[in-house]
Amino acid sequence: MAGKDFRGRAEELRRIITDHDYSYYVLTQPKISDYDYDMLVKELEELERKHPQLITPDSPTQRVGKDLTKVFNEIPHVYPMLSLANSYDENELRDFDRRVREGLGQESEVEYVVEYKIDGVSINLCYKDGLLSYATTRGDGASGEEVTANVKTLRSVPVKFREYPLSGYDLSDIHIRGEIYMETGDFRRLNDERVEKGEKLFANPRNFAAGTVKMQDPKIVASRPLKIFVYYLLSREGAIKTHSDGLVILKRLGMRVNDAYKICKGIEEVIDVCRGFEESRESLPYEIDGAVIKVNSLPFQRTLGSIAKSPRWAVAYKFKAKQERTLLRKITWQVGRTGALTPVAELEPVFLAGSTISRATLHNMDEIRRKDIRQGDTVIIEKGGDVIPKVVAVADPERKGRSAETAVPLSCPECGSSLFKPEEEVTWYCENSDCPAQIKGKLEHFASRGALDIEGLGESLIDLFVDRGFIRTPADIYSLRGRKDELIQLERFGKKSVENLLDAIEKSKEAPFHKVLFALGIRYVGSGAAKKLADHFGSVDAMMNANAEEISTVHEIGESISQSVVNYFKEEHNLEIIKRLRAAGLRFEGKKETASKEFFAGKTFVLTGSLEKHSRDDAAALIEKSGGKVSSSVSKKTDYVIAGESAGSKLQKANDLGVKVLSEEEFIKRLEE
To answer: What's the rounded Cα separation, in Å, for the pair 177 and 137?
Structure first.
């Protein structure tokens, strides 16, 4: 065969195999037998083996890499991967619709798209010029870990778009959101095989999928039956007007879209669809734990924007949780990093919603008393949001021979110290800030993946190090290098494992300021709020010098967060930890780029209506970088309101108070000055 013929045959085989992949993995409509398919792949492999120059990055033979992935690099998300706010009944859906219409300044019905909420692992796919560039996990929402090599093994993820380019759309640099999952039948078969081999069972399909996506060996990932549904297309250009249009485009590109989605006019139609979804739940081949409702209009989505953790234009409607009965053997008490005591039910193991449950939360004493839960009861358990097991009721509250009523411990179960309960709370707390459980909880949070991500420093090691007196505060972690010889002598520890741990600790010093701020464990300051505070103030020193009112001017930061931040920096103990962490080399300053433009400096702005060229979050970031402040409400202290199309009550209030109003064009002009 001549060289040109080799090249032509290789191109033909790649096209034929890719078409069959699409038919089998996306359309689930195979056109040839497995044997015939394998013969095509073997022919292509043989051609590429003899003529390596024929291999292309998008060849079906290149899906499964040969190299192990030692490190999953962190990549910032171009578009944040926010989580969804949850709703649990139909009235909460109506409240969501009311907030949407108020935010849009309109009384008429809004068009929504309703989709299955797949119980899987969120993923972000970046495509450039029609080719898969990289894939990342959700991570903390601001950045995720690159898992490209593993995601490429999923044949339902096209390495190259099936139809590209598309006339009328600039799709040269886009991001696609999806959910990787495992079907329940495949999961059961997998566990049945492990039973026969005497191996430990996997807990549930979601955890299995999450663990597989982060495996080091792509060949193992390729051997596991993972699938994907994609559900959102993000691009910078504005030709795509609705979310449903985006789904149609994704299908044309060769992506696997769940066709069960419904376009609804108004919230009552949404509610009817949600009822139907819940009724059909048990008949589906995969786990769903609810429905996702999204405003269909993309300009409306941009107008509504988002808060620190979730978009205002979407909500998750969680289905009623599945329930089971089991015996409550014992009630124990856990102490968290804030000193809060949480009662836990130790249960007779029972299988529920895809996993075996042996422990469940009892929340607090008020809940225990209200439900009259006692040791020895037969109880009804469910998974809250199909995730966290909880006891919802006693199965037979009238039965005879029940044990004594449950009572709060007389002292902390971890350290024996006294307990106290703030007047306005239902939770009891250990008063000893040196309680080992609190110390361990704070250290676990500090080293966790969402915070400084110190690989290897998990719960068991922290328990060991605290018990040995090696560490008590996060700052002590950075003194462990001085104990290297002692660490090597510990049981099940060796020189290499100690070096790996110390290297991970050293690497954590590269974490950006917002992650360090989150790692400190300030009450109410989650990862999203930490990012907003870090971006606004730029350094921990600026935050320390701010009062609660100044902190609350930060976009989407409320009173409870601002007061908690102020209280944290009042404590000498906390200031000493920050001093030591800073000396160890951690970053307490960000890349705040305040241009300090005269027009914006020191002024307060409010955004309302739909902006054509900016999302609200982008506009807020530009204002803050220029030295201004962004508030969510109009008051006499507001300097300017920036009003876009369909501006509502905020514009009216600005006019009533005599606050100056800028159009988007005037706002852009001021930025360019």
So the answer is: 10
